[in-house]
Amino acid sequence: MKRIIPFILLLTIIFSVPVALAHTPLKLKEDNHSLETALEIKNPTKSWTLYREIHETDEAYYYKLDLRPGERLVISLYAPRNEDPNFAPNLIVMGPDIQSKGEVPMHIETPKGVGVAVIESHRPSKPEYEPFTPSSYFYLADVDVTISNGGTYYFAIYEPSSEGRYGLAVGYREVFTLSEWLLIPLNVISIHMWEGQPLAFILAPLILTLLIGLGFMFFKIQSRKILSTYLGFIGGLLFIGSGFMTLMQMLMALTGVESTSSAAITTVFIVLPILMGFQIMRSAHKTNDGLTLKERATLAILGVAGLFIWAGILLGPILVFLASVVPGRPQIS
User: Fold this and answer.
1) Are 73 and 149 part of one and the same domain?
2) What is the pTM of this model?
3) What is the pLDDT of residue 166?
């Protein structure tokens, strides 16, 4: 159990770090092209992200949220680093407490009797690194207004001359439900696909790790017919492979960014799954006559911990935990 202590300490460090930019993905709605069909963002002070694509120029996407006095309207508009440099969607914010500015295009719907602010995008010279995905984005426009009167607010995104992908970060309270936290690995894969990466490319480090590890397993432990050995070994490989997936994404995202200091956060999510994966494989490889109570406890702790550090893309922790609870010495025929 002494080997578990460093892992627990690292987990404590992770959850002590402010989860800046670790927003919760919001379900999409494809027909929000008018005020009437605006996508409503419930719990609007919570941090949400949306990953969208403009398919037609001058086609606006509308969003709606209700805020109370004292709350903040926080919106960030960004684009993936590999997006066309000419793609610069604009942000239009509408509602009470909004000071009107800019010229509103004729095709943009606006509610009556409220302020309307047109915020034009400005593409910075370098992208900004986001450590939890990990990715890097060009942040184009942002709003941060403290609400005095409260009420219903709308904002719209449109691009007058080109098509492309844009992301939105809305809200400022970094809170998660248990299911939202556990599903982050799957959401991260979908984010990388939104960025334009093929699924096979995203999963390549994991697949390569599995192929090499399974080859070793069949040549070195083929005489061991214990189910927990196979479950633990494969689960450990998934831990390691997910660490290498994050490493590959970090190396790509860090190229040419404004600052690399936050990469230290990503490094924890690389090193920890890899170390835990090797510990799991070591325990599974030693298993010849069934697991001792101590070994079962070790695997159970590592399996549950893996869920909370996004290791093994959910399947790895599940297999490791199963390895800790399978009864007796099951045989594989």
Assistant:
1) yes
2) 0.86
3) 94
